[in-house]
Amino acid sequence: MSDTTNTTIAADLDKGLQDMAKKVFQEGATLGELKGITPRELNAVYQMGLGFYNTGRFDDAEKVFTFLVTFDHLESKYWMAAGAVQQVKKEFEKAKSCYVQASMLDIHSPKPQYYVAECYLALGQKDDALASLDTLLEYCNGTDEVTREFRAKAEELKKKIAA
Questions:
Q1: pTM of the prediction?
Q2: Which of 19, 79, 87, 93 is buried most, with the most CB atoms less than 10 Å from its CB?
Q3: pLDDT at 29 over 90
Q4: DSSP output for 116-138
């Protein structure tokens, strides 16, 4: 191959990468969208991961949920699932990171902050756990059953930490 051909190929590749980066960073695209993976297909993979998780196949579930957060980094439930696997494997720093990501994507959901607090407790960081619970109580004010349940659990956990 000639140097001119290599230069042309490199320029085309560079342009393609620039276009991809623009779609991801400026337009909010996901890698899955760029690769043509549909939400339905991602959900099928998610269901498979839940099956692995629910049957104790945590290494397999971890692979599935890592795939999902790679191909759709904007879906909170994928980050929650990835965090759950890490938490059950006692990888509390990794779990906490996943839950924080889920929380940023869905700030009004109480679940991520509650599980962040659990991870902090497992790491022996009581003050950080309390801060997470306070964040939950401040920002998660919905009246649905899940929010009420997690707000009550947060209040109870705060009492246990303070005792």
A1: 0.81
A2: 79
A3: no
A4: HHHHHHHTT-HHHHHHHHHHHHH
